[in-house]
Amino acid sequence: MARIALDAMGGDFAPKATIAGALLALQELDGVHTVQLIGQTSVIEAELASQLSRDQQIATGVRKHVEIVEAPDVIGMSEKPTAGMRKKPNSSMIVGLRLQTEGKSDAFVSAGNTGAQMASSAMLLKLQPGLTRPAIATVFPTARKPVIVIDSGANVDCSSKELLQFAWLGAVYAECIFGRPNPSIGLLSIGEEPEKGNQLTLEAHALLEGSALRFEGNVEGRALLESEADVVVCDGFTGNVALKTLEGTIRSVLGALRDEIRSSTRARVGGLLIRPAARGLRARLDPDTYGGGYLLGLRGLVVIAHGSSSRVAIANATRLAARGVEHRLVERLAERLPETRAESRAATIDA
Amino acid sequence: MARIALDAMGGDFAPKATIAGALLALQELDGVHTVQLIGQTSVIEAELASQLSRDQQIATGVRKHVEIVEAPDVIGMSEKPTAGMRKKPNSSMIVGLRLQTEGKSDAFVSAGNTGAQMASSAMLLKLQPGLTRPAIATVFPTARKPVIVIDSGANVDCSSKELLQFAWLGAVYAECIFGRPNPSIGLLSIGEEPEKGNQLTLEAHALLEGSALRFEGNVEGRALLESEADVVVCDGFTGNVALKTLEGTIRSVLGALRDEIRSSTRARVGGLLIRPAARGLRARLDPDTYGGGYLLGLRGLVVIAHGSSSRVAIANATRLAARGVEHRLVERLAERLPETRAESRAATIDA
Question: How far, in Å, CA of B33 to CA of B325, rounded?
Fold first, then answer.
């Protein structure tokens, strides 16, 4: 049984979407887990009562798996993350993460300020020994199988050794959560040939090739949706640009299709007939289906969700946290990381 | 009347696609322009004869606007660009570009090795004074209006001053070709707030803000298809990843939609009804519709096309070159560049 701390106050649509998401996750998790709603108790209680009053059946089944943990301070989306932490030591983020350091919680989920969540997570949970940075691992929707992209936004300027660390983190993720033994690793670049790339990827290419990982070489942006690789490694700036380009393009193409369909009667009739098919596609490609990404490399479990997370996104982020606890993701990372450290040392000696 | 040199031997489907593309472009350009097919004369003549034999009407109208210029050497896609230039001084690329330096041609178009094309173009045509690098400007398909993305692949590691130069090049392009006076400039980053980005974009943000350009701040990957900005500036690595992610996502979403439609009889009927609408969308979003991008910053006009260019892509790249000549793009860049130089000097003094 996992105890998942959810930042009830974080995200553009909190606390409505966060609490609704928690309830949705609990219904589908069959009550095995507990969600700890972190935030201002009075606000959470009012919202919870209002949402539970709508469905008595859910209320009785789910309520006993919800805890409320008081956190009086709220950090705004525009506040500087570090300033926020110092000035507001009892924000929902800090309180939620502290529960984990105190052994009272197994995972933390937030759709609040990403920078604040990364900084507080690193400060409170600490990095795994041998790592220099945590990284966000996001699963991209894909035609064949999910692709893990790491780093998708935590570190804007990285070294090639950090990219090697990310590859290890992603590999353990793929093994542990998706059950892919010896997963394949691709390096995001601008051509499949080894000599294509920028200085960072050229160096990282050499390090990955010398590693014990199953490195398949460079992959291009177009491979993110149809990759043979289980894990795609990149710096956080590039990963974030790619992720947002992908999300924007999906939305834009589906929107343009809708407009085209509305433009004639014939197409409108056709549109009605393909509606169930289009809906399936939309659900599969919806970023909310993934909900969030793990912040990997810490001595604790953290899921970072989009600021604009809907109820469904929060529920999926909560489920992602539960899966991480069930599969002992953090423990298995800790077991495997000595291999990274050895390679990292070797890379230093070579350099 | 423009004389456009086309590398008949460049690209995955040359010379079939290149020659077919030239003929297609000439039909639509109403015979005002001349296409100079550069390559091995015997190969070109055979292919040209075979293609023209299919349609006598086109043959008589178009043939007189085609010139063949002999270039005996061919550079392979996998050869090192610089090695290729030295060993093969009479490749179609070098011969095509040399025509322009000799005043015998107005533009050069190739779907051959991009690295070779950039290196040869810079060597033969030379940079405009004050610039340190040429940049590829690609037009992204978009819902509202075309967005110029610069650099989309020429320079993998850039300085912030170079991003400022790219912004000027893109601005003159938007003004000159799309008739947008005082175009708006966005900087590709990972958040709209000025403090979001990597070291390069943070520095570039400050330079752009201090420039005479209409700088609108950071834009995210998702804005590439629906941007308010006329020009989006980035380094060539990021731009190339974004471009390929966008192309891959479009293909993947349309492919997934087709699969969903095939999955039930009801959807199949609907698919038939929306086919004209879907075809329109596909054409609009097809990268071939844009065909290629200008390599800007040189004292001559160069269009770089995808290696995988189809007939339609080559035709569009040829038209792009013709439009550049008609609108005096290179001359207008030269007129405006003193402004860049002044800003670039100011940036150096500040630094």
Answer: 10
| CATH class for the domain made up of A3-131+297-327 | alpha beta
Query: How large is the ipTM?
Result: 0.87
Is domain B135-286 in CATH 3.40.718.10, yes or no? yes
Q: Where are the domains of chain B?
A: 3-129+297-327, 135-286
pLDDT digits (tens, 9 = 90+) for A52-100: 888 777 667 788 899 999 999 876 656 666 666 777 889 999 999 999 9
B chain contacts of residue A261, beta-carbon cutoff 8 Å = 274, 277
Half-sphere exposure of B351 (CA within 13 A, CB side): 13
Question: How does pLDDT run across B303-349, given as a tens digit for each residue?
Answer: 999 888 999 999 999 999 999 999 999 999 999 887 766 776 666 65
Question: How many other C-beta atoms are found inside a 10 Å radius of the C-beta of residue B122?
Answer: 18
Point out which residues pair with A36 in neighbouring strands: A5, A67
> Are A281 and B188 inside 8 Å of each other by CB?
no
Bridge partner residues of A150 (DSSP): A137, A233
Q: Does B83 touch chain A (CB under 8 A)?
A: no
Chain B residues near residue A197 by CB distance under 8 angstroms: 156, 237
Residue A204 identity? A
Sign of CA dihedral A301, A306, A307, A313: negative
Q: Assess whether pLDDT exceeds 80 at residue A133.
A: yes
Tokens 């050869």 map to which residue? B79
What kind of fold does domain B3-129+297-327 have according to CATH?
Isopropylmalate Dehydrogenase (3.40.718)
Domains A3-131+297-327 and A135-286 share a fold: yes
Nearest C-alpha neighbor of B310 from the set B19, B5, B4, B40: B19
**B87 Cα to chain A: minimum distance (Å):** 20
Of B210, B167, B176, nearest to B350 by C-alpha is B210
- Residue in A with minimal Cα distance to B227: A248
Predicted TM-score (pTM) of the model is 0.89
Is B153–A276 a contact, with Cβ atoms under 8 angstroms apart? no
Q: Are strands B147-150 and B135-140 parallel, antiparallel or unpaired?
A: antiparallel
